[in-house]
Amino acid sequence: MKYLDEFSNPELAHNLLERIRATTTRRWAIMEVCGGQTHSIIRHGIDQLLPDQIEMIHGPGCPVCVTPLEIIDKALEIAARPNVIFCSFGDMLRVPGSSEDLFRVKSKGGDVRVVYSPLDALTIARENPDRQVVFFGIGFETTAPANAMTVYQAQRLGIENFSLLVSHVLVPPAIAAIMESPDCRVQGFLAAGHVCSVMGTAEYPPLAEKYRVPMVVTGFEPLDILEGIRRAVMQLEQGRHEVENAYPRAVPAQGNPAAKAMLEDVFEVTDRGWRGIGVIPRSGWRLSERYRDYDAEHRFSVTDVHTDESSICRSGEVLQGLIKPTDCAAFGTKCTPRNPLGATMVSSEGACAAYYLYRRLDQPAEVAHA
User: Fold this and answer.
1) 162-169: strand order across its sheet
2) What is the pLDDT of residues 215-225, one digit of tens each?
3) Residue 259 shares a structural domain with residue 166
4) What is the pTM of this model?
5) Does 357 fall in a domain?
6) Considering only CA atoms, which of 73, 268, 61 is closest in space to residue 151?
């Protein structure tokens, strides 16, 4: 409760907003990379309290949202098999594949189970030695260590009926892809604090220097985000492009050495598809050769899956920061949390879900881009 109270103080928030206003002399576009930060910004109305010259652009940092359709369809194919127990975090069950989602597979008789840790799936595998147990391992660098540890434990304990369907993605290559897009308007970044708590900050200075953009590592409470914005604006106004850590209570510069060692052992870097964006070179992880036997894609031979994206969903443009959710004609009408067309309306970190949940339903496009 201490940090919840301290980092939501209205008086301190007002003071930070005044400092941002006093600093801002030009128009600036800043991207918050993480979907958790997006929800905090929309929930607390931070984007509406900022000076008119500052635009917050919502980035692709929602792990559910960027999981490619091909992987979702592979999950559906595996989960429908009669001898499989398919385990996943709950937010993946309603993510639409080409024709259905995991809830629909479950309603048809598939053994789909919600777990709260990948180690829960490993326990299920030990309790059901005659069945194949698959855990859906998605996410950024934040969730990857726990999934890596689970595979490590499965091999160490000799649990052969467990496998991992892997769709892990990495933040730094995504930032590079955003900056190299011809439509990019981003001038500064709020980097995700939880990712940096694992990986540290060493990967970011080369990006800041190459693309000449400030990057401020920050957290998720209102004051965290406002302080991150203040520092980013200060750098932009002064013509600087540096990496600053505004989240030192959670992010050491070196990250978590034990977690990074586990990741290096279990995973290897690979090209990875991002839903709505496409393939970004060397932007993801797959299981290394030493643990390849635990790769569900290879175990179940789901390498040739046809996918079919919605023709009216514009979630890919939302994920790239090219449009706001309300710029999509399907938003709030044909696409709602109960009947989503894209993952950005399903995920608890999706930008479309944030706009719908916090009633940003009729914001006109010209205001969204003001």
Assistant:
1) 111-114, 84-88, 132-139, 162-169, 278-287, 267-274
2) 999 999 999 99
3) yes
4) 0.91
5) yes
6) 268
